[in-house]
Every structure is written in C-alpha cells, then in structure tokens.
Write a structure and sequence with these properties.
CATH class: Alpha Beta
Order of helices and strands: HEHEHEEEEEHEHEEEEEEE
CATH superfamily: Endonuclease/exonuclease/phosphatase
Keywords: Endonuclease, Exonuclease, Hydrolase, Nuclease
Protein name: Metal-dependent hydrolase, endonuclease/exonuclease/phosphatase family
Strand order of the largest sheet: 3-4-2-1-15-12-10
Pfam family, one: Exo_endo_phos
Organism: Marivirga sericea
InterPro entries: CCR4/nocturin_mRNA_transcr, Endo/exonu/phosph_ase_sf, Endo/exonuclease/phosphatase
Shape: globular
Length: 276
C-alpha cells in the first residue's frame, strides 16, 4: 500500500470515528413502575419485574427516571441492572422508607459530579408533606458528565401529588427555581409523573419557561395517554407523565403500551425520548 492510500484510509477512519462520537444519541425514559403490592393479583410486581428489566435492556436506555419505587424494588433493580448507577433517597425519611423517585444512568457513559433529593415543600431539605399534598413528594436531581462529549447534563426526576392543587402549583415553582439555582450549561432534562394534564396551569407554566415538552416531537409514536390503570382495550388519553428538555435536538418521542398477557408493565406506560 503506497503512502497516499494509507493517508487516505487514515483520514476516512478519523472522519468515521468523529461521526460516531458526535452523532451519538441520548435515550431517556420516565417510568412510573407502580409500587410493590403483593395483593394486586395479576398486576403484582413479581409478575412484571422481569419484563421491566427486559424493556430497559432492549431499549438500551441511557438515563431512566422512575417513580413509585419501594426499597425492595430498588434492591432488585440495582442487583439486576449492574450496568447502571442509581441516585435518590426515599421520601418518608430521606433514607429507605417510602417511595423513591430515583435516577438510573449508564455507568460506562456518564460520570456524576453532584446529586441530591429535595422535598416539594417550603423546607426542601427536610422530609415532609407540604401545603395541601396527600403525601410527601420529592424531586431527585443529578449533574452528569457525558464521558465522550464532556458535556454537562442536569437531570431532574419527580413525582407530584395527586390531590393538592396548591401543592401542584408550588411544586412547579420550586422545581423551576431549583433549575435556575443549579449551575448548568443549558442542557436540562426534567421528567416524571406530574399527575397533571397538559392543559393544566402548572404544566403550562413549565412550557412557558425555557423547557420544551418532548411530546411535541415530529416523530411521536404510541397512544396519547400515559396512564392505563391496568385496563386493557380502553381509550388511553390521560397524559400525566412528561419529559421536558432544554438544549437538545429531539429525535423521537415514544409511549410504549406494552402488554404482558393480561396486564401491562405498569399502570403507567414508559415514555422514551431520544435526543440527538
């Protein structure tokens, strides 16, 4: 092989490697997996957990925000998803009591520089039920560095109350304030179960900020609604799970209505968003 051909091949290899780095996508998922309740018959966790693992691995998700995760479920997921690291604490005591809203992320792609869980409350550092909420509510956040691109991503995952209107409104104010408080380079992902429809005032307040609703992606697949209540064959039109973003180019939004015989993976559909 002469020197000209060798240089040409080296040049092509350089272009290919750089294309692979800079064309890498980011797949994130928000997923309320439904807390473990052995009395739920066909819908119980033991009947769903293996298929949830399979879904995460087949989709090759980079970042997953989950809701309604009890400590026993955390232990199972951490044991079986060794390729992922997890952050987040339980909402009742800031340790392991009650539900988590954890963030799982790929160990081989991201390094973490900071993270915390705060309560949706006037005193966000202290475990508490606030305003007119029925239960304590939390938001977990992480600053992740993409090990290939060296870019910083601020990721937040939350689960809003299902009752209190004041709590719902003030939770949005608190989270938007937290995003502004945390230093980031403009790449932000806010996801979770917001227990609110898209036309509600709190969701509109998020959209009126600098965050975009991933549902508006040109490539949008699956039913509109994200909550199924474990009911098969109904019109799924209740959208309460969201991925909001800033600083990314969106590639696709997919709402997966996956069934396991006579049930679903959860009473919420997993929402997967891919960014370029």
């Amino acid at each position: 092989m002469n020197i000209v051909k060798m240089r040409y091949l080296i040049f092509l290899l350089f272009i290919l490697l750089n294309y692979q780095v800079y064309s890498q996508t980011t797949k994130v998922c928000t997923f309320n997996i439904k807390y473990e309740n052995p009395k739920e018959g066909v819908h119980k966790w033991d009947n769903r957990k293996e298929q949830i693992l399979k879904f995460i691995k087949i989709e090759d998700l980079d970042i997953v925000g989950m809701q309604e995760v009890l400590h026993s479920q955390i232990r199972f997921l951490e044991n079986r998803l060794a390729e992922y690291a997890r952050i987040g604490v339980a909402r009742d005591d800031g340790k392991s009591k009650g539900e988590y809203s954890p963030i799982f992320y790929k160990r081989n792609r991201y390094s973490i520089i900071d993270s915390a869980t705060f309560w949706l409350s006037p005193n966000p550092e202290i475990p508490a039920r606030a305003w007119d909420a029925a239960l304590p509510r939390v938001c977990t956040w992480a600053k992740l560095i993409d090990q290939e691109t060296k870019e910083l991503i601020l990721v937040l995952n939350t689960h809003f109350d299902h009752v209190g209107s004041e709590a719902l409104s003030k939770s949005v104010d608190l989270i938007l304030s937290k995003i502004n408080e945390l230093e980031h380079n403009g790449k932000v992902i806010l996801m979770g179960d917001f227990n609110l429809g898209p036309e509600s005032a709190p969701i509109q307040k998020i959209i009126d900020s600098e965050l975009n609703d991933a549902f508006e992606a040109e490539l949008n697949l699956g039913p509109i609604g994200t909550f199924n209540a474990f009911k098969i064959g109904i019109n799924y039109d209740r959208r309460i799970d969201y991925v909001f973003y800033q600083g990314f180019e969106i590639k696709s939004y997919k709402n997966y209505s996956l069934r396991i015989q006579d049930t679903f993976l959860s009473d919420h559909f997993p929402v997967v968003v891919e960014f370029e």
